[in-house]
Amino acid sequence: MLLKDRIAIITGGAGLNGLGFATARMLAAHGATVAILDLESANPAGAAAELGPGHIGLVANVTSKAQCDAAAEAVLKRYGRIDILFNNAGITQPRKTLDISAADYDMVLDVSLRGTLLMSQAVLPSMQRQQSGSIVCTSSVSAQRGGGILGGPHYSAAKAGVLGLARAMAREFGSDGIRVNCITPGLIATDIIRGKLTEERKGEIAEQIPLARLGRADDIAGAVVFLASDLSSYCTGVTLDVNGGMLIH
Ligand code: NAD
């Protein structure tokens, strides 16, 4: 099995329709043991139970250094190692530039960008001790094309920040055998877009996509399994577009 004996942490993984949970399911199907981290309101323990025995759910708000560190500690205590981190937690807000408040800015950047830094900081020391690990960070096509579908400019900025952070960490930790890569999803049908786009608008967007459909959560999960596993053993600092061809560059 591709991920036999690997221990994986997924942030924001409790939403059963989300990219995190789809990835948890696929990592587990390939043999990994998964720790799902999410806000208390999202019920990470319930999501982990859906995966089957042996997996765990932990409450952790990725904007809190103490909670990220405590979650990593709990995973290490239970399983003894951390092989994979999928930095997936993120929120979006439809805003125009002139309408972004300081609180909006903090909220959106804190989850995607600060959260990616804090959770990476929480797992990197153990990965350094192991001299191995794979971190997959979630950017967005919004960072590359300047938004324009759902999120505001602060969302594009947060996701562009994730790209820079991931590339810099890839450079810094390569000599420790730790790979850091990014995925840039296009428009994927999850709760994050629910109620925000009409069926008509979704149809118009799909017409512009070479693969002629919106993405599915499993499209992302497959890309993360690739980056998490030894199949991608010589890939670090990579940005993997998973967008159906929405942006070809
Ligand atoms: P989602 O809303 O279904 O899932 C996001 C998860 O993050 C939820 O479970 C939520 O509870 C959790 N979360 C929110 N704030 C958190 C915090 N402070 N700490 C811990 N967990 C927190 O969204 P999704 O579509 O599955 O998106 C997953 C990731 O993919 C996000 O980073 C998103 O920005 C990114 N993304 C999504 C799309 C898309 O079209 N769906 C496109 C590009 C990028």
End-to-end gap: 34 Å
Write down the CATH topology: Rossmann fold
Which overall shape is indicated by the principal axes computed on the Cα atoms? Answer: globular
* Overall mean pLDDT: 97
Rg over CA atoms, rounded to whole Å, is 17 Å
Strand content: 5-15%
Task: Give the CATH superfamily.
Answer: NAD(P)-binding Rossmann-like Domain
Question: How would you portray this structure in words?
Answer:
- The protein has helices spanning 19-29, 44-51, 65-79, 102-130, 141-145, 153-173, 199-207, 217-228; strands at residues 7-11, 33-38, 56-59, 84-87, 133-138, 178-185, 239-242.
- With 249 residues, it is of the alpha/beta class.
- The chain has a single domain, classed as Rossmann fold (3-Layer(aba) Sandwich).
- Strands 3-2-1-4-5-6-7 form a seven-stranded parallel sheet, with helices on both faces.
- The longest helix is centred in the middle third of the chain and has 29 residues, at 102-130.
- It starts with 6 loop residues before the first strand and ends in a 7-residue tail after the last strand.
- The model has no long low-confidence stretch (mean pLDDT 97).
- It binds nicotinamide-adenine-dinucleotide (NAD).
- Nicotinamide-adenine-dinucleotide binds next to α1 and α4.
